[in-house]
Amino acid sequence: MTDLTAFIEGLPKVELHLHIEGSLEPELMFDLAKRNNIDLPFKSVEEVRAAYEFTELQDFLDIYYQGMGVLQTEQDFYDLTDAYLKKIHSQNVIHTEIFFDPQGHTERGVAFETVINGITRALDDGCKNYGISSEVIMCFLRHLSEEDALKTLEEALPFKDRILGVGLDSSELGHPPSKFQRVFAKAKAEGLKLVAHAGEEGPPEYVTEALDLLKIDRLDHGNRSLENEVLTKRLADMGIALTVCPLSNYKLAGVTDMTKHPLKTMLDKNLNATINSDDPAYFGGYMTENYLAVYEALDLSREELETLAENGINASFCSEARKTEMRKQLNSYVSQ
Ligand code: ADE
Ligand code: ZN
């Protein structure tokens, strides 16, 4: 059988599920801590990496919120985003739709404007320097209140020209989508795209709520949908995209063995699955490593890999013109 490693490396890729704060590598964490005079509870980069052993989502989130504490100034957010873009450019990612968690910063006294200005300045430069197109999606932290989310939405509206949509992340269990129904209705009325993490740790019912109550345009993770056949068929019939994050699922123990990852089943059941990295600095890999992990463990064919790349383009929220351009780039690559 031919080895498709080089094919995967060169494949033009689209990323649709990436928390920019989750791309904070330990090296940059130390640099920013020094710059901002912050004491980290770790002595070295190695010690930080050693702490990245998670048994569930909450283990990761605790360390993730602690890590983002080094981000203070607009330049910090610029440097974070620029480092991510440099990395994905080396992996032939051509378009990315990034999440950010404003409440993780505003609750520490960092202004919304500081965060959005740093991120979008880096994205604009990334388009010029690397040719990577991008969109920004603002996530609400679901462990916080509806009221806090509404306040955050209000804070974001003056920057609406730079924010394409809203999402829902953080601790899933005990915080069902229904808690944010009014927030999402308001975001929709403002013309924002809607996505939500559901079925990562939470039950299939949370996916149903995200569809019926939040009216999402795209589903983040969605793995546990497979436990419900009716829901699985509904998702397939709708053609709604699932932003699947293989290494994240493995690291957060939703999937104990990569050979048991549900991606292949998803494709076999005609789900519109895409490959993404979620929090690459914490889960051991960016886009290429995520593609390689499922390719190796699930023995994916070249056609399946092409389908995944094409799904990423189709499921993106960018303009039709940009999609056409990306499809051309993908077609020319695969026909070589
Ligand atoms: N925030 C960052 N990464 C997350 C994930 N995988 N699930 C929920 N919230 C998150
Ligand atoms: Zn996520």
Write a structural description.
- This protein is of the alpha/beta class and 336 residues long.
- It has one domain (5-335): TIM Barrel (Alpha-Beta Barrel).
- Helix content is 51%, strand content 14%.
- The chain contains 17 helices and 8 strands.
- The chain has helices spanning 5-10, 26-35, 45-50, 57-67, 74-89, 102-106, 112-130, 146-156, 181-189, 204-214, 229-238, 246-251, 263-268, 280-283, 287-298, 302-315, 320-334, and strands at residues 13-19, 93-100, 133-141, 165-169, 193-198, 218-221, 241-244, 272-275.
- The chain has an 8-stranded parallel beta sheet.
- Helix 16 (302-315) packs antiparallel against helix 17.
- 46% of the residues are buried.
- The mean pLDDT is 98.
- It binds adenine (ADE) and zinc ion.
- Zinc ion binds at residues 17, 19, 169, 197, 220, 278.
Task: Please give a quick description of this structure.
By secondary structure, this protein is α/β, with parallel strands linked by helices.
